[in-house]
Design a protein that fits this description.
- Two copies of one chain form a homodimer.
- Chain A has about 425 residues and is of the alpha/beta class.
- In chain A, helix 2 packs across helix 7, helix 5 runs parallel beside helix 6 and helix 6 packs parallel to helix 7.
- The longest helix of chain A is centred in the N-terminal third of the chain and has 20 residues.
- The radius of gyration of chain A is 24 Å and the shape is globular.
- At the A-B interface, strand 2, helix 10, helix 14, strand 13 and strand 16 of A face strand 2, helix 10, helix 14, strand 13 and strand 16 of B.
Chain lengths: ~425, ~425
């Protein structure tokens, strides 16, 4: 946190320009900071959060009270709440990011050309990262940790409903930066609830190198449409499992059940189950009963409904819907090609899996399904940065350029070319 | 080339939508094509171009005649011309791309997690690439080769002044695809000179995954502003050389002379020379005389002018200018920090070099200068895909995300996660 906005609430544009200038200046210093200094800052932030647990709870109570007065839903109030366990988890998250390998300055692909020039690539920070998010205040600490560790400066814009909590967390972040001798403007929390701040932030390419929106589809689409800065975005997750004709039926049932029911509201949850018609009569009855026992509503194609009277007919819209709820659509397909066609036509290129014991079909599926994560015999729920060994994630990208899938520290960096000569001239 | 536009010139939007749909459908087939089929197509295209040399020259003559009638400058007419040597170079370029390693399907970072899941990344095509370029018709063949080899479908929109040449090249491309059993819509040349085609092409995210504009700064800025599709862009190259206090004076002179004078109109040409004040009196007099002998106009800071009466004072604007001409600006600096400050403040993050024998200074420069290529003791003119061993390039990216610097086959692909389980469920 940096400039107090009090004096300039009349001028959000000037305030955001100042935040941007400060971030750009800090970015150069953070990019050159040693791993030791960055890690010290992260550990100091963690200690500050633990020491300020009572103040964080007080600030959070103000947000919760205001939220209740403003009629926020129970689900939103739950996201907003900083319980003691969540405060401890923020500190633990900061310490965990400190323990990850530092990506900055790694050199790869170094090779000597015919003329003796040594050419390779160095991993470097992106510069200034703008993060726009909604109610959960713990994102403030998580995002700060990932941006700092990857050598970037960050401008964090949380939801207005969490402003008191975010201000309190920002103080802990700032004291950590200060204790490690790093510029306090390296991580700035936007200190105004004026919505114009977002519009300003996404149109300052001179100060912001990339925007990462975290939140609902509406927020992300609006930002993508209006941004004049590159956006790393996470749109919906319409995830599929295809039970192949050569599937092991036990694996098929266990994995498909887990992918739908382990959590309903996450982007990597199964939304549409595709089943080869030759195996459907064997595998579906037991599996569909399991789903029903768990309270999952089932909507199917004609052939699925013919197989099981408890399935209601799916509409065309179902195949294009991310339910984020205990609802599953089911379609029987004639072969692998039809399964891939369905996924390419209706999916969101997030995470899709095949259940099969057939090597050829598994290889075709891996190659031909154009999603950020493609799986064989595993639950789509594994699609996240922690499960992939990234240590942490700032989100799951459904973009094709730059970073695809879970985005960890590497996704917050890029590669520049370095060229070592000895007086080489071009002829 | 695909749909004949004749029947729909009244409706560019419908035509481009059709081109887009065809490209999207072809993209899936090209993504799954074997290296053998893609290489066969490239070799057949090369043979078709050689066999059609006379027809290409005829078509090109129509463009040249129209260009002269329309008052095109000699420089533009030169770019537009397809000499026999340039026709042969197109064929050679296609054969060279065929000889490069195929990036599609390469698997990296494969590792086993604690739970036994095998997780890695597979290199995959981006999908459909739209390329918008100006007069040079040889770009049609070059871009087709790189897109096809990297498993992408392409929509190519050349300059209207080259429409006859591009149509003739498109026929060769199409016959090559056909001979290799690949879909002819994999490479489509937009067959209308209506400018609305560009506006349509950059706003069809459902059919186009990325736009690569090649041309002047005006074209690229306009496309970046209006595109609703990600853009890999190449803005200006304001390249610097910093002659450090610990430079070898012979290397400094040779490299600085080469970087400015080897070619004036290229983006990796030196535009501003920074010289440590303690070495300036030794190194500059001879070097500046060399520049003058080559016809280079010299504009300098006050201290440079004081050192050499033949240098005219630089204005503030000079430090922010890409001359693309025999003009050089020169500034004396007090130390490495001031050199880096100047480059970060006035450069375009393209290519910058230090001349030094000091290890510490070289390492600081490599790390702290935030450009797509950073060099030590080498001419900035080396910054291109061929010199870097990429085999070919589609352009030099000044973006920070996805691809930075020369963009070859790898820059036209991305990495998706692949996950191999054995019935794994998440708990």
């Amino acid at each position: 946190m940096s400039a107090t906005a009090d004096s300039m609430e009349h001028d959000v544009q000037a305030y955001m320009q100042q935040v941007g200038r400060q971030a750009r200046a800090a970015a150069r210093l953070v990019a050159a900071a040693t791993p030791g200094a960055k890690n010290k800052a992260l550990l100091e932030m963690a200690a500050a959060i633990e020491a300020a647990a009572a103040q964080l709870a007080d600030a959070n109570r103000k947000d919760l009270d205001a939220g209740r007065n403003n009629g926020l839903s129970d689900a939103l109030l739950d996201r907003l709440e900083l319980t003691p366990a969540r405060i401890e988890a923020m500190a633990a998250g900061l310490r965990q990011v400190a323990s990850l390998p530092d990506p900055v300055g790694q050199i790869s692909d170094m090779a000597i050309q015919d003329n003796g020039l040594q050419i390779g690539r160095m991993r470097v920070p992106l510069g200034v990262i703008g993060i726009i998010y909604e109610s959960r205040p713990n994102v403030t600490a998580d995002a700060a940790a990932l941006c700092l560790k990857s050598g970037n400066a960050a401008i964090l814009r949380g939801g207005s409903e969490a402003i008191h909590s975010n201000r309190a967390i920002a103080q802990c972040i700032q004291s950590g930066l200060d204790a490690a001798g790093l510029p306090v403007h390296a991580i700035q929390v936007v200190d105004t609830t004026d919505r114009a701040a977002v519009g300003q932030m996404i149109t300052m390419p001179e100060y912001v190198d990339v925007i990462i929106p975290r939140g609902g589809k509406g927020l992300i689409e609006r930002i993508s449409n209006e941004a004049r800065v590159p956006v790393i975005k996470h749109l919906d997750g319409i995830c599929h499992i295809y039970i192949d004709e050569h599937a092991d039926q036990d694996k098929a049932s266990r994995v498909s059940y887990n992918a739908k029911t382990q959590r309903y509201g996450t982007c990597n949850t199964l939304e549409t189950l595709l089943v080869h018609q030759s195996i459907a009569a064997e595998v579906l009855p037991g599996l569909l009963q399991q789903y029903r026992d768990a309270g999952v509503e089932l909507r199917g194609c004609e052939r699925t409904c013919a197989l099981d009277g408890g399935v209601t007919p799916a509409t065309a819209e179902d195949w294009d819907t991310e339910y984020l709820a205990p609802v599953l659509s089911i379609r029987l397909v004639d072969n692998l090609d039809q399964a891939i066609d369905h996924i390419e036509g209706h999916g969101s290129h997030h995470t899709d899996a095949i259940i099969t014991e057939d090597l050829h079909n598994s290889q075709r599926f891996l190659r031909e399904v154009d999603s950020s994560s493609v799986m064989v015999n595993a639950s789509t729920r594994f699609s996240d940065g922690f499960e992939y060994g990234l240590g942490a994630e700032i989100g799951i990208s459904t973009d094709k350029l730059h970073a695809r899938g879970p985005v960890g520290l590497e996704g917050l960096t890029s590669l520049k070319y370095i060229v070592l000569g000895d007086g080489h001239t071009r002829s």
